[in-house]
Structure prediction request, 426 residues.
Amino acid sequence: MMRALFSAISGMRNHMSYMDVVGNNIANVNTTAYKQTRVTFEDILSQTVRGASSPQNGRGGTNPAQIGLGMALGGIDSVMSQGSLESTGKLTDFAVQGDGFFVVSDGTTQSYTRDGAFDIDTTGTLVNPNNGLKVMGWSADANGNVDTTTPMTPLTIPFGTQVSARPTADANPQPAIPIYGMTAAGNLDSGAATGAVVESTVQAYDSLGNAHSIKLTFTKTATANDWTVTGTADGGTIGNALPATTTLNFTSSGQVDTTSATNGFLPISLALTTGGVTPLAFKLDVSKMTQFAGDSQITPQTNTGAPAGALVSFAVGNSGEISGIYSNGSSQKIGQLALASFVNPGGLQRQGDNLWAPTGNSGTAIIGTPNSGGKGSVSTGTLETSNVDLAQQFTNMIIAQRGFEASSKVVTSSDQMLQDLVNMIH
Prediction:
């Protein structure tokens, strides 16, 4: 009789814990990136009334007879499934699609979170505005290079930082694929009469960021598929920008003849009196131009030069790279967001504030960049919502209530039976 009382009490006690877990899940249904928890139960030691026996002496075997002594709380597990993504439109809101965690720090201790509701403080540092923890990653050097083998540092968005002017110039990166100072595309009318003129203006920048307008004049010659090109800079105040005999040749199929003297580019040289570069020399790549029947139109496309500018905005790619956007229209990588992953994320311990800490069963944090090592990708302008399934939680609430109620009935019935037993002596 007493066993039934103690078993029922254990059922009541642990179903109360079940209800506590369900209540916490429901309370966090709108908590950013919250991971719901679930309860598992297990039976406890049983009293053996009769042991099992094997078949012998012509009789079959018998099973053990045991009376259970109640139930216990087996575990409370975190369900680490992906929550839905909700668009916020805020530039500093991030969400992880996958198994990664953002790394945040107070300068002494690192913690991990799925909550990407970040903001920028007065120092330009990317932080969680609710607790002030700084978002960790790697900063780029002056050339936009990031070394992820170095220790992580707080990420900063240095608004107002100046970027130096870049002169328009050719480059030869490795492997040696030439990058010309400017490129242009468009079409010159194959049916144009001899002497027809097409004009276009491009801008080049000197080392101080001064813009120089170069007026290009294409004139159809009497020779089939040939156009002469002349260029004057700054209204002719600094002379011609092209050699006097520059000719652009096209093949019979309407493409630029890259085997001709110009090789698909126009050699431009400006005899500058200011800007610190004399002359300013580069090539204008026109290899993508065509000569087909139709209107003539020339469009500048790229320019390696730019005036000085200041950082006015930034963008984050799904691989976590942070690109600064400058007032002169240029962009450059300024940082790299870090993510952490764990062998067993379910073994992480909650710290409050949507933070997690590693434990002996989660494994240590594996730090890297998004889209590497199964860490998932980063989505900007979005937040991860709670993965709580309300329908399931309401069902669990009923189950917890009924389990508690049933155990309480056992207590009531056991009490009545004990009362009847006591009353037998009267």
User: Anything to note?
Assistant: Residues 90-163+310-384 form one domain. The chain has three domains: 2-51+62-81+387-423, 90-163+310-384, 182-303. The longest strand covers residues 211-220. Residues 390-423 form the longest helix (34 residues).
